[in-house]
Amino acid sequence: MPLTNFGSILNFAEELETRDRDVYMVLAANPACEGHSQMFDDFAVEGKKNIRNIQRTRRENVTEMILEPINDFNRQPFCETYDVTDSVSMGDALAGSKRLEERSIRYYTEAGKKIKALPEVARALKQLAKKHHARLQRLSNP
Fold it and tell me: Percentage of the chain with pLDDT > 70?
């Protein structure tokens, strides 16, 4: 499904953040991830903040969203999900979380390039990519 405008890019970003937050909430409660539960809980809390930031960015730039069409940008390459259960092993939890973070970095980086005509929105997406990069670093060095 193509992402053809500002609204669709931010709606999909909110969808990604919501799904990731839900994954991290499950991982934080998983007994097998007990040694890293605080990190996963931190990610879930940060995900909630990211969602609010995306919603605020959408509200503040709503007038511009109608004016800027986006071409050649699809959500399909970013639809990777991680269906986590409460019985996932710590190794699988870390590997799955890294994949989610890498996907988010790719999405925010590419979306920022596509929406560069709106510098404030592009800056917000770049900030989200930085946050996910920091998470990836934290996952790599738990």
Answer: 95
Task: Quote the pLDDT of residue 99.
Answer: 94
Let me know if residue 105 belongs to a domain: yes
* Residues 83, 132: Cα–Cα separation, whole Å: 19
Q: Let me know if residue 1 belongs to a domain.
A: no
Does the residue 11 lie in any domain? yes
Q: Could you give the number of structural domains in the chain?
A: 1
Contact 89, 32 (CB under 8 A): yes
Sign of the CA dihedral running 51, 53, 57, 59: positive
More confident residue, 65 or 140: 140
Global model pTM greater than 0.85:
yes
Host domain of residue 88: 6-140
Q: Are 121 and 6 in contact (CB under 8 A)?
A: yes
Task: Report how far residue 104's alpha carbon sits from residue 139's, in angstroms, rounded to the nearest whole number.
Answer: 14
Domain of residue 64, CATH code: 1.20.1260.10
Query: Angle of helix 6-29 relative to helix 37-60, nearest 10 degrees?
Result: 160
Q: What is the CA radius of gyration of the chain?
A: 15
